[in-house]
Predict the 3D structure of the following.
Amino acid sequence: MFQFDSLSKIFIFLIFLGVIPNLFYSFGYLSHIKRKTYYLIHYFAFIFSMMGVVVADNALVFLFFWELMSLSSWQLILTDPKSAETQKAGHFYFIMTHLGFIALLMFFLLISDGQLMLSFGEIKNLSSSFISPTVLFFFMLFGFLSKAGAVPLHVWLPYAHPSAPSPVSALMSGVMLKVAIYGLFRFLFEILYPWPLEWGIIVLLIGSVSSLVGVLYALSEHDIKALLANHSIENIGIILIGFGMGMIFDSLELKALSSFAFMASLFHTFNHMSFKSLLFMGAGSILHQTHTKNMEKYGGLIKAMPITAMTFLFASLSISALPPTNGFLSEWMIFQAMLGTNLLDNMTLKLVIPFAIFALALTGGLAIACFVKAYGITFLGLYRDENQENIEEVNKMMQIGMVLMSLVVASLMIFTPYFMKLFDMVFVSFGFPSIYGEIFPNGIYNMHSLGLNGGVVSPLILLGVLVGLTLLFLYVYKLFKVKERICHTWSCGYSTSPKTQYSATGFAGPIRRFFNWLYLPKEHLHKALIHNHKTKFTSSHYEVHVKLLFEKSLYDNTKVLLNTLSYWVYKLAHFEQTRYIAIIFSLMITILFGYRLVAYSFSFYTFIIQLLTTIIIFKTLVKGEKQ
Amino acid sequence: MILYLLSTLFLILIAPLVLSLIKMIKMYLLYKQPISIFQGYRDFNKLMQKETVISKEASHITRVAPFLILSPLIIVLFLLPPLTQGAFYISFVDAFTLIGLISLSTFFLMLLGLDSASAFGGMGSSREAFISSMVEPAMVLTIFSISLMADNLGVGQAGVNLAHHFPKEHMASFLFAGISFFILLVAENGRIPVDNPETHLELTMVHEAMILDITGVYLAIVEMASGIKFIIFSTLFVSLFIPYGLEFVWYISLGIFLLKIISVAIVVALVEINMAKLRLFKVPNLLGIAIVFAFLSLITFYILGA
């Protein structure tokens, strides 16, 4: 029923790291929630079910806890179900997560031959005789990635995560997405083990696209929680890039490099859990105080909320992959894994991987821009809305939650070698060679890459020197006793006002303009003109809405297509009762013919004859005469 | 070890000198009365003696950011390839760490721009965010390519390897990578055609806009940081793409190094007076060229081995 091998243990560890600070935060946040009992029941059920998923050892238990996880998180999104937005988000999440569930169910039914009670070890034996494992792979990928939020199954994230109460968004984005990654690890390693090269390339491709799409939509977002949700898509993309590299190396029999890439991916999973939870907690604290999710209303919060601001800055540095933070280290490992490809013989791969490197590097650059925007507009400058005097630091429990979470981030940064040792144990248990000794050959200070002539980074020394040097400079500055004067910011003779600051929309302006072909934005400019004078106006309002490409073109068009089809069928069937029989008859003919073609023998003559017969039958019996 | 510390100190010392040199050459070529080459030091001295005016709207970020802008760059200085033979160097730290540290410095510079609640600062930060996010991929690809030729990802070791064994057989990809890196040098340091360091016109400024609201010691520190950034990029450029002169005695190789830096300064100055500043939305085209050259360099290396 249950198993506690090293992979399960490491993910239980991850869940604990994510949940414990969240508990504190959640209790601090409770005063904000109206239906407290309802919230608490689902909250603990959610945590419990995530634990259940990672220790399950047969398909039935796995699916049970998976479904419990989906349902409890769905109910948590609907904690405050009044607004139409939340209802839409809940609806969307429900449908997406169940599409994924169906795919997973198909996967398990196919692979275990209907015996869902078999343990995963026994399934392995059954699955080796399965004819086309690629079908299984796609079912599994669909199931887990719809939960993890990789492109093109990412559309629900920017709706669901902002609608949930903040501690829950932290849990969903920080921990639940990682449970989906656990599923990938578990079933690829344990059941579908020797995989062809193509699977790795598919995962790499999905990862690259997700990381770029995620960060680009994050940049254009004004809703702070939706911005963070879009960043989850990006980070899942980065995790998948590492994962895909590991799969590619493994199918090329480069075990050590493969283990390195998988470790990078697992490390980024941990890192993303830590900083994304912290960022969502920070966003929740801001939301708690300002009662709005719109970034355009924020500004200058660092003065009123110093703890939130500091922890948010720390997490921003980490998510932007700036050294010496943990986010940098895992991204560094993924880069190094990709640079390991220069030794391959496969020329196509060698030429393709630089594009993935390009995607990851561009993602890194845009993530920096995005978090300068998120931090700068929210915490720096002047407050842009009215109720400034009401804003104060959040309560102690929430502060403790945020501080604890930033300690988790810091410990991932400082104790990287020990985490690496843990990850190494996981992959050794799956038959990979132990590479801890090669990553840290001489002590814990220098971290080596596994590639030939690979790079080296010394995170601890870097951290020490950076902090030391900055403190030294600050001390010297204090020592000099420089004369200081406080004065208003000079704004060309006018008084400094919140309205003259750059807005979040304005900040992302250049990037939005450059990626116009992707965003296809709709601009609304409204001016209250004085006497229809073109240049004189009392107030003006500018808004820009980005077209969500995937949602509009992929999802909405599918919806339109399905509607059209069903309407057509409805029109066919709903005039005469006899048509039902005609439809059933022609369907049977089609199936029989199709069976003959696929299973029995195929020749073009019979195909054409059968096609014509089907069309004639359909035309005469079903469509009938024109009225 | 002493030689190592001294050469790092030397880099810090010549940082303002090189920026003044570029300005001097430009003024000379424009038939203006050239400024003194020591103008950088004079400005520094002047700013150090001023009182610091801190914006009332600003937060603690303004008080910390200048130091956080400077210290990553100082660390990068210690990780550069050696200037002379025998100068101890940290051979192993790879280019990603360097890029990361420079990004860290830029990150705080952008926050500094947003901190004072002025429209100029936000504008500068926004533009800088735009440009530096486009620089990043080109940089990573170029570094990847050159590290393949140098057989090492560590920047210090790559510089030494290239000096000892010039990759004659990979001349084509070497040149492509060089062109790409030079464009990045221009873009990252805010020179014309990407940014004009000498104007305070709101239509054009990027770097100057971000630091418009700081004065005194803080301004001195940030100016020093931008000088050091230029020195970092030009040192990387000369030791990776003009890898020559490491085998002599230390004073000769230091002289050769200085000559190389001066020639880079001259080229930058020549580019500056011969080109107009690009519109902001044309800048990605230039950086696109850098990206294309980086890709070309990698592809030539892989396919042709040339």
